[in-house]
Protein backbone atom coordinates (compact mmCIF):
# COMPACT_ATOMS: atom_id res chain seq x y z
CA UNK A 1 0.00 0.00 0.00
CA UNK A 2 1.45 3.41 -1.00
CA UNK A 3 1.08 6.68 0.87
CA UNK A 4 1.06 5.05 4.29
CA UNK A 5 0.16 7.23 7.25
CA UNK A 6 0.47 5.00 10.33
CA UNK A 7 1.54 1.50 11.35
CA UNK A 8 0.30 -0.29 14.49
CA UNK A 9 1.21 -3.65 16.03
CA UNK A 10 -1.43 -5.54 18.02
CA UNK A 11 0.23 -7.94 20.43
CA UNK A 12 -2.44 -8.19 23.12
CA UNK A 13 -6.15 -7.59 23.36
CA UNK A 14 -5.44 -4.31 25.15
CA UNK A 15 -3.89 -2.99 21.94
CA UNK A 16 -7.32 -3.21 20.28
CA UNK A 17 -8.48 -0.28 22.39
CA UNK A 18 -5.50 1.77 21.21
CA UNK A 19 -6.19 0.76 17.60
CA UNK A 20 -9.75 2.06 17.87
CA UNK A 21 -8.51 5.44 19.13
CA UNK A 22 -5.86 5.70 16.42
CA UNK A 23 -8.32 4.74 13.68
CA UNK A 24 -10.59 7.58 14.75
CA UNK A 25 -7.64 10.03 14.78
CA UNK A 26 -6.48 8.98 11.28
CA UNK A 27 -10.02 9.21 9.90
CA UNK A 28 -10.41 12.70 11.34
CA UNK A 29 -7.02 13.79 9.96
CA UNK A 30 -7.91 12.87 6.35
CA UNK A 31 -11.28 14.65 6.56
CA UNK A 32 -13.87 11.91 7.22
CA UNK A 33 -17.05 13.06 8.91
CA UNK A 34 -17.65 12.20 12.56
CA UNK A 35 -20.06 9.34 11.85
CA UNK A 36 -17.66 7.80 9.33
CA UNK A 37 -14.87 8.08 11.92
CA UNK A 38 -17.01 6.10 14.39
CA UNK A 39 -17.93 3.51 11.73
CA UNK A 40 -14.32 2.86 10.74
CA UNK A 41 -13.11 2.72 14.35
CA UNK A 42 -15.92 0.32 15.28
CA UNK A 43 -15.15 -2.00 12.35
CA UNK A 44 -11.41 -2.11 13.17
CA UNK A 45 -12.13 -2.71 16.86
CA UNK A 46 -14.40 -5.69 16.13
CA UNK A 47 -11.91 -7.16 13.65
CA UNK A 48 -9.05 -6.73 16.13
CA UNK A 49 -11.06 -8.44 18.84
CA UNK A 50 -11.84 -11.38 16.51
CA UNK A 51 -8.12 -11.90 15.79
CA UNK A 52 -7.58 -12.99 19.40
CA UNK A 53 -10.52 -15.45 19.29
CA UNK A 54 -9.38 -18.42 17.15
CA UNK A 55 -11.33 -21.50 16.12
CA UNK A 56 -10.18 -23.88 18.87
CA UNK A 57 -6.47 -23.25 18.28
CA UNK A 58 -3.93 -21.26 20.26
CA UNK A 59 -4.39 -17.49 20.53
CA UNK A 60 -3.15 -15.41 17.59
CA UNK A 61 0.45 -14.32 18.10
CA UNK A 62 -0.26 -10.79 16.98
CA UNK A 63 -1.35 -8.58 14.10
CA UNK A 64 -0.13 -5.55 12.15
CA UNK A 65 -2.31 -2.68 10.97
CA UNK A 66 -1.50 -0.19 8.18
CA UNK A 67 -3.41 3.00 7.37
CA UNK A 68 -2.88 4.54 3.91
CA UNK A 69 -4.52 6.91 1.40
CA UNK A 70 -5.05 5.72 -2.18
CA UNK A 71 -7.34 6.98 -4.98
CA UNK A 72 -9.40 9.21 -2.74
CA UNK A 73 -9.94 6.49 -0.10
CA UNK A 74 -8.64 5.78 3.39
CA UNK A 75 -7.52 2.13 3.31
CA UNK A 76 -6.87 -0.12 6.31
CA UNK A 77 -5.07 -3.46 6.06
CA UNK A 78 -4.82 -5.91 8.99
CA UNK A 79 -2.49 -8.92 8.76
CA UNK A 80 -2.52 -11.50 11.59
CA UNK A 81 -0.72 -14.80 12.12
CA UNK A 82 -3.11 -17.71 12.47
CA UNK A 83 -6.86 -18.15 11.86
CA UNK A 84 -9.50 -15.97 13.52
CA UNK A 85 -13.24 -15.36 13.81
CA UNK A 86 -13.13 -12.36 11.41
CA UNK A 87 -15.02 -14.21 8.69
CA UNK A 88 -18.01 -14.46 11.06
CA UNK A 89 -18.47 -10.66 11.02
CA UNK A 90 -20.09 -9.97 7.61
CA UNK A 91 -22.35 -7.27 9.11
CA UNK A 92 -19.29 -5.03 9.52
CA UNK A 93 -19.38 -4.46 5.76
CA UNK A 94 -22.19 -1.98 6.39
CA UNK A 95 -19.82 0.25 8.35
CA UNK A 96 -17.29 0.71 5.52
CA UNK A 97 -17.41 1.15 1.75
CA UNK A 98 -15.49 -2.06 1.02
CA UNK A 99 -14.48 -5.06 3.16
CA UNK A 100 -12.61 -8.25 2.20
CA UNK A 101 -11.55 -11.01 4.63
CA UNK A 102 -9.08 -13.78 3.73
CA UNK A 103 -9.20 -16.10 6.75
CA UNK A 104 -6.62 -18.80 5.91
CA UNK A 105 -5.22 -21.59 8.07
CA UNK A 106 -1.97 -19.72 8.82
CA UNK A 107 -2.67 -16.04 8.08
CA UNK A 108 -5.69 -13.75 8.26
CA UNK A 109 -5.74 -10.66 6.01
CA UNK A 110 -8.51 -8.06 6.32
CA UNK A 111 -8.78 -5.05 3.97
CA UNK A 112 -11.35 -2.29 4.24
CA UNK A 113 -11.73 1.30 3.05
CA UNK A 114 -13.86 4.44 3.28
CA UNK A 115 -14.15 7.18 0.66
CA UNK A 116 -12.65 10.56 1.58
CA UNK A 117 -15.17 13.42 1.08
CA UNK A 118 -14.54 15.00 -2.30
CA UNK A 119 -12.87 11.84 -3.64
CA UNK A 120 -9.48 13.49 -4.25
CA UNK A 121 -6.02 12.28 -3.28
CA UNK A 122 -4.17 14.25 -0.65
CA UNK A 123 -0.92 15.90 -1.75
CA UNK A 124 2.46 14.66 -0.45
CA UNK A 125 2.66 17.77 1.73
CA UNK A 126 -0.76 16.96 3.19
CA UNK A 127 0.36 13.39 3.94
CA UNK A 128 3.57 14.60 5.63
CA UNK A 129 1.55 17.01 7.75
CA UNK A 130 -0.88 14.25 8.78
CA UNK A 131 1.95 11.83 9.64
CA UNK A 132 3.61 14.48 11.81
CA UNK A 133 0.35 15.25 13.60
CA UNK A 134 -0.36 11.55 14.26
CA UNK A 135 3.14 11.00 15.54
CA UNK A 136 2.79 13.96 17.89
CA UNK A 137 -0.57 12.79 19.25
CA UNK A 138 0.34 9.25 20.31
CA UNK A 139 -2.38 8.15 22.77
CA UNK A 140 -1.60 7.38 26.39
CA UNK A 141 -3.49 4.56 28.08
CA UNK A 142 -3.35 2.88 31.51
CA UNK A 143 -1.05 0.27 29.97
CA UNK A 144 1.40 2.99 28.92
CA UNK A 145 1.54 4.17 32.53
CA UNK A 146 2.29 0.62 33.70
CA UNK A 147 5.19 0.29 31.22
CA UNK A 148 6.65 3.60 32.40
CA UNK A 149 6.50 2.43 36.03
CA UNK A 150 8.33 -0.77 35.03
CA UNK A 151 11.13 1.28 33.45
CA UNK A 152 11.43 3.44 36.55
CA UNK A 153 11.58 0.32 38.71
CA UNK A 154 14.40 -1.19 36.62
CA UNK A 155 16.35 2.08 36.80
CA UNK A 156 15.98 2.15 40.58
CA UNK A 157 17.17 -1.48 40.76
CA UNK A 158 20.42 -0.68 38.90
CA UNK A 159 21.10 2.46 40.90
CA UNK A 160 21.11 0.64 44.20
CA UNK A 161 20.71 -2.97 45.23
CA UNK A 162 20.96 -2.06 48.86
CA UNK A 163 17.35 -0.95 49.10
CA UNK A 164 15.80 -4.42 48.71
CA UNK A 165 13.09 -3.57 51.18
CA UNK A 166 12.09 -0.56 49.14
CA UNK A 167 12.20 -2.70 46.00
CA UNK A 168 9.89 -5.27 47.54
CA UNK A 169 7.48 -2.49 48.50
CA UNK A 170 7.61 -1.07 44.96
CA UNK A 171 6.98 -4.53 43.50
CA UNK A 172 3.94 -4.90 45.72
CA UNK A 173 2.64 -1.52 44.62
CA UNK A 174 3.30 -2.40 41.00
CA UNK A 175 1.38 -5.66 41.31
CA UNK A 176 -1.54 -3.79 42.84
CA UNK A 177 -1.34 -1.26 40.01
CA UNK A 178 -1.33 -4.07 37.46
CA UNK A 179 -4.47 -5.56 38.96
CA UNK A 180 -6.13 -2.15 38.89
CA UNK A 181 -5.14 -1.59 35.27
CA UNK A 182 -6.41 -5.00 34.18
CA UNK A 183 -9.67 -4.42 36.04
CA UNK A 184 -10.02 -1.03 34.35
CA UNK A 185 -9.28 -2.52 30.93
CA UNK A 186 -11.82 -5.29 31.49
CA UNK A 187 -14.46 -2.67 32.29
CA UNK A 188 -13.51 -0.57 29.26
CA UNK A 189 -13.55 -3.66 27.03
CA UNK A 190 -17.08 -4.58 28.16
CA UNK A 191 -18.31 -1.03 27.60
CA UNK A 192 -16.64 -0.90 24.18
CA UNK A 193 -18.24 -4.17 23.11
CA UNK A 194 -21.65 -2.90 24.21
CA UNK A 195 -21.08 0.36 22.33
CA UNK A 196 -20.11 -1.50 19.17
CA UNK A 197 -23.29 -3.57 19.28
CA UNK A 198 -25.31 -0.38 19.80
CA UNK A 199 -23.62 1.39 16.87
CA UNK A 200 -24.30 -1.51 14.48
CA UNK A 201 -27.94 -1.69 15.59
CA UNK A 202 -28.35 2.09 15.36
CA UNK A 203 -27.13 2.28 11.77
CA UNK A 204 -29.39 -0.62 10.82
CA UNK A 205 -32.34 1.30 12.27
CA UNK A 206 -31.28 4.50 10.47
CA UNK A 207 -31.18 2.65 7.14
CA UNK A 208 -34.70 1.33 7.75
CA UNK A 209 -36.03 4.78 8.67
CA UNK A 210 -34.39 6.29 5.56
CA UNK A 211 -36.14 3.75 3.36
CA UNK A 212 -39.48 4.58 5.00
CA UNK A 213 -38.87 8.30 4.50
CA UNK A 214 -38.07 7.81 0.81
CA UNK A 215 -41.24 5.75 0.35
CA UNK A 216 -43.35 8.45 2.05
CA UNK A 217 -41.78 11.17 -0.12
CA UNK A 218 -42.47 9.20 -3.29
CA UNK A 219 -46.09 8.63 -2.23
CA UNK A 220 -46.54 12.36 -1.57
CA UNK A 221 -45.09 13.24 -4.98
CA UNK A 222 -47.41 10.76 -6.75
CA UNK A 223 -50.39 12.14 -4.85
CA UNK A 224 -49.58 15.75 -5.79
CA UNK A 225 -49.06 14.83 -9.44
CA UNK A 226 -52.27 12.77 -9.71
CA UNK A 227 -54.48 15.27 -7.91
CA UNK A 228 -53.07 18.22 -9.84
CA UNK A 229 -53.50 16.42 -13.16
CA UNK A 230 -57.13 15.55 -12.40
CA UNK A 231 -57.89 19.15 -11.39
CA UNK A 232 -56.54 20.81 -14.53
CA UNK A 233 -59.35 19.74 -16.84
CA UNK A 234 -62.33 20.96 -14.71
CA UNK A 235 -60.54 24.18 -13.73
CA UNK A 236 -59.75 24.92 -17.39
CA UNK A 237 -63.39 24.24 -18.23
CA UNK A 238 -64.56 26.71 -15.55
CA UNK A 239 -62.25 29.40 -17.00
CA UNK A 240 -63.58 28.72 -20.49
CA UNK A 241 -67.23 28.92 -19.39
CA UNK A 242 -66.57 32.16 -17.51
CA UNK A 243 -64.91 33.60 -20.62
CA UNK A 244 -67.98 32.62 -22.70
CA UNK A 245 -70.37 34.24 -20.22
CA UNK A 246 -68.30 37.43 -20.29
CA UNK A 247 -68.03 37.46 -24.10
CA UNK A 248 -69.58 40.64 -25.61
CA UNK A 249 -71.23 38.51 -28.30
CA UNK A 250 -73.09 36.42 -25.71
CA UNK A 251 -76.31 37.49 -24.00
CA UNK A 252 -75.66 40.65 -21.98
CA UNK A 253 -75.21 40.27 -18.22
CA UNK A 254 -76.30 42.55 -15.45
CA UNK A 255 -73.66 44.43 -13.49
CA UNK A 256 -73.97 41.99 -10.58
CA UNK A 257 -73.69 39.01 -12.91
CA UNK A 258 -70.63 40.53 -14.60
CA UNK A 259 -68.97 41.03 -11.22
CA UNK A 260 -69.80 37.46 -10.14
CA UNK A 261 -68.46 35.99 -13.39
CA UNK A 262 -65.29 38.05 -12.92
CA UNK A 263 -64.88 36.65 -9.40
CA UNK A 264 -65.41 33.10 -10.68
CA UNK A 265 -62.84 33.59 -13.43
CA UNK A 266 -60.30 35.15 -11.06
CA UNK A 267 -60.69 32.31 -8.55
CA UNK A 268 -60.34 29.72 -11.33
CA UNK A 269 -57.19 31.45 -12.60
CA UNK A 270 -55.72 31.34 -9.08
CA UNK A 271 -56.62 27.66 -8.76
CA UNK A 272 -55.11 26.82 -12.17
CA UNK A 273 -51.91 28.61 -11.21
CA UNK A 274 -51.77 26.56 -7.98
CA UNK A 275 -52.40 23.32 -9.92
CA UNK A 276 -49.62 24.14 -12.40
CA UNK A 277 -47.23 24.96 -9.54
CA UNK A 278 -48.07 21.64 -7.87
CA UNK A 279 -47.39 19.77 -11.11
CA UNK A 280 -44.05 21.54 -11.56
CA UNK A 281 -43.07 20.79 -7.96
CA UNK A 282 -44.10 17.13 -8.29
CA UNK A 283 -41.99 16.76 -11.44
CA UNK A 284 -38.99 18.33 -9.72
CA UNK A 285 -39.32 16.06 -6.67
CA UNK A 286 -39.79 12.91 -8.75
CA UNK A 287 -36.58 13.57 -10.70
CA UNK A 288 -38.32 13.45 -14.09
CA UNK A 289 -36.97 16.87 -15.14
CA UNK A 290 -33.88 16.36 -17.28
CA UNK A 291 -31.93 19.55 -18.07
CA UNK A 292 -31.32 20.26 -21.75
CA UNK A 293 -27.66 21.23 -21.49
CA UNK A 294 -26.47 23.83 -23.98
CA UNK A 295 -24.43 27.03 -24.22
CA UNK A 296 -26.58 29.88 -22.83
CA UNK A 297 -25.81 33.54 -23.51
CA UNK A 298 -26.80 35.41 -20.35
CA UNK A 299 -27.00 38.73 -22.22
CA UNK A 300 -29.65 37.32 -24.59
CA UNK A 301 -31.52 35.73 -21.68
CA UNK A 302 -31.50 38.99 -19.71
CA UNK A 303 -32.83 40.87 -22.74
CA UNK A 304 -35.73 38.43 -23.08
CA UNK A 305 -36.62 38.68 -19.40
CA UNK A 306 -36.41 42.47 -19.52
CA UNK A 307 -39.07 42.51 -22.23
CA UNK A 308 -41.44 39.90 -20.76
CA UNK A 309 -41.37 41.00 -17.11
CA UNK A 310 -41.38 44.79 -17.63
CA UNK A 311 -45.18 44.80 -18.09
CA UNK A 312 -45.62 43.77 -14.43
CA UNK A 313 -43.76 46.84 -13.11
CA UNK A 314 -45.97 49.66 -11.86
CA UNK A 315 -45.24 53.36 -12.22
CA UNK A 316 -43.72 53.52 -8.73
CA UNK A 317 -41.40 50.54 -9.26
CA UNK A 318 -38.59 50.49 -11.83
CA UNK A 319 -37.35 47.20 -13.28
CA UNK A 320 -33.60 47.37 -13.94
CA UNK A 321 -31.94 44.45 -15.76
CA UNK A 322 -28.21 45.07 -16.21
CA UNK A 323 -26.52 43.03 -18.94
CA UNK A 324 -23.39 41.17 -17.76
CA UNK A 325 -20.00 41.91 -19.28
CA UNK A 326 -18.91 39.76 -22.20
CA UNK A 327 -18.18 36.91 -22.53
CA UNK A 328 -21.27 35.83 -20.62
CA UNK A 329 -21.90 32.23 -21.63
CA UNK A 330 -22.78 29.41 -19.30
CA UNK A 331 -23.44 25.73 -19.95
CA UNK A 332 -26.88 25.07 -18.52
CA UNK A 333 -30.60 24.77 -19.41
CA UNK A 334 -31.90 28.10 -20.76
CA UNK A 335 -35.57 27.29 -20.10
CA UNK A 336 -34.98 26.28 -16.46
CA UNK A 337 -32.77 29.30 -15.74
CA UNK A 338 -35.43 31.58 -17.25
CA UNK A 339 -38.10 29.98 -15.02
CA UNK A 340 -36.00 30.61 -11.92
CA UNK A 341 -35.14 34.24 -12.75
CA UNK A 342 -38.68 35.06 -13.89
CA UNK A 343 -39.99 33.70 -10.59
CA UNK A 344 -37.53 35.84 -8.59
CA UNK A 345 -38.35 38.98 -10.61
CA UNK A 346 -42.11 38.42 -10.15
CA UNK A 347 -41.52 37.94 -6.43
CA UNK A 348 -39.56 41.19 -6.20
CA UNK A 349 -42.23 43.19 -8.05
CA UNK A 350 -44.97 41.61 -5.95
CA UNK A 351 -43.47 42.74 -2.63
CA UNK A 352 -42.12 46.16 -3.70
CA UNK A 353 -44.39 49.21 -3.44
CA UNK A 354 -41.82 51.78 -4.56
CA UNK A 355 -38.19 51.89 -5.66
CA UNK A 356 -36.68 49.29 -7.95
CA UNK A 357 -36.13 45.61 -8.67
CA UNK A 358 -32.62 45.08 -10.08
CA UNK A 359 -31.06 41.97 -11.66
CA UNK A 360 -27.28 41.67 -12.22
CA UNK A 361 -24.80 38.92 -13.06
CA UNK A 362 -21.08 38.73 -12.24
CA UNK A 363 -18.41 36.07 -12.77
CA UNK A 364 -17.29 34.36 -9.55
CA UNK A 365 -14.35 31.99 -10.03
CA UNK A 366 -15.63 28.94 -11.93
CA UNK A 367 -19.25 30.07 -11.76
CA UNK A 368 -21.72 32.95 -12.11
CA UNK A 369 -23.57 34.91 -9.42
CA UNK A 370 -26.97 36.20 -10.53
CA UNK A 371 -28.61 38.57 -8.02
CA UNK A 372 -32.18 39.85 -7.94
CA UNK A 373 -32.43 42.71 -5.41
CA UNK A 374 -35.51 44.73 -4.50
CA UNK A 375 -36.39 47.64 -2.21
CA UNK A 376 -39.51 45.95 -0.90
CA UNK A 377 -40.85 45.06 2.54
CA UNK A 378 -38.04 42.60 3.36
CA UNK A 379 -38.06 39.35 5.31
CA UNK A 380 -37.06 38.79 8.94
CA UNK A 381 -34.09 36.50 9.58
CA UNK A 382 -36.11 33.73 11.25
CA UNK A 383 -38.15 33.31 8.05
CA UNK A 384 -35.22 32.99 5.60
CA UNK A 385 -35.41 29.18 5.65
CA UNK A 386 -39.19 28.96 5.87
CA UNK A 387 -39.83 30.83 2.61
CA UNK A 388 -38.30 27.84 0.80
CA UNK A 389 -40.83 25.47 2.40
CA UNK A 390 -43.76 24.33 0.30
CA UNK A 391 -46.98 26.39 0.72
CA UNK A 392 -45.42 28.80 3.22
CA UNK A 393 -46.11 32.50 2.62
CA UNK A 394 -44.71 35.45 4.57
CA UNK A 395 -47.42 36.88 6.88
CA UNK A 396 -49.04 40.07 5.65
CA UNK A 397 -50.28 41.25 2.28
CA UNK A 398 -48.00 42.16 -0.59
CA UNK A 399 -48.02 45.87 -1.52
CA UNK A 400 -49.11 45.03 -5.06
CA UNK A 401 -52.09 42.98 -3.86
CA UNK A 402 -50.99 39.99 -5.98
CA UNK A 403 -51.48 36.57 -4.39
CA UNK A 404 -49.03 33.70 -4.39
CA UNK A 405 -49.19 29.95 -3.84
CA UNK A 406 -46.14 29.48 -1.63
CA UNK A 407 -44.65 27.09 -4.21
CA UNK A 408 -42.57 29.42 -6.41
CA UNK A 409 -39.46 29.69 -4.25
CA UNK A 410 -39.33 25.95 -3.31
CA UNK A 411 -39.64 25.08 -7.02
CA UNK A 412 -36.97 27.65 -7.96
CA UNK A 413 -34.51 26.23 -5.40
CA UNK A 414 -35.10 22.68 -6.69
CA UNK A 415 -34.42 23.79 -10.25
CA UNK A 416 -31.22 25.58 -9.23
CA UNK A 417 -30.08 22.46 -7.34
CA UNK A 418 -30.86 20.35 -10.43
CA UNK A 419 -28.57 22.65 -12.43
CA UNK A 420 -25.76 22.16 -9.89
CA UNK A 421 -26.12 25.53 -8.15
CA UNK A 422 -27.48 27.18 -5.01
CA UNK A 423 -30.20 29.72 -4.21
CA UNK A 424 -29.85 31.89 -1.07
CA UNK A 425 -31.49 34.99 0.36
CA UNK A 426 -30.28 38.03 2.33
CA UNK A 427 -32.98 40.31 3.70
CA UNK A 428 -34.10 42.53 6.58
CA UNK A 429 -37.56 43.96 7.29
CA UNK A 430 -37.92 47.34 5.60
CA UNK A 431 -34.57 47.01 3.78
CA UNK A 432 -35.59 44.87 0.81
CA UNK A 433 -34.36 41.41 -0.23
CA UNK A 434 -31.54 40.03 -2.37
CA UNK A 435 -31.83 36.54 -3.85
CA UNK A 436 -28.53 35.11 -5.14
CA UNK A 437 -28.33 32.25 -7.65
CA UNK A 438 -24.88 30.65 -8.04
CA UNK A 439 -24.44 28.42 -11.09
CA UNK A 440 -21.31 26.61 -12.37
CA UNK A 441 -20.12 27.99 -15.68
CA UNK A 442 -19.33 24.50 -17.07
CA UNK A 443 -22.60 22.86 -16.01
CA UNK A 444 -22.97 19.38 -14.46
CA UNK A 445 -23.66 17.24 -17.52
CA UNK A 446 -20.12 15.94 -17.75
CA UNK A 447 -19.17 18.18 -20.71
CA UNK A 448 -15.88 20.02 -20.52
UniProtKB/TrEMBL annotation:
GO cellular component, one term: plasma membrane
InterPro entries attached to this UniProt entry: HATPase_C_sf, HATPase_dom, His_kinase_dom, HisK_dim/P_dom, HisK_dim/P_sf, Sensor_HK_Regulatory, Sig_transdc_His_kin-like_C
Reaction catalysis annotation: ATP + protein L-histidine = ADP + protein N-phospho-L-histidine
Subcellular compartments: Cell membrane
EC number: 2.7.13.3
Histidine kinase domain boundaries: 226-443
Coiled-coil stretches noted in the UniProt entry, renumbered to this chain: 143-187
Keyword list, A-Z: Coiled coil, Kinase, Phosphoprotein, Transferase, Two-component regulatory system
Protein name in UniProt: histidine kinase
Organism, as annotated: Asanoa ishikariensis
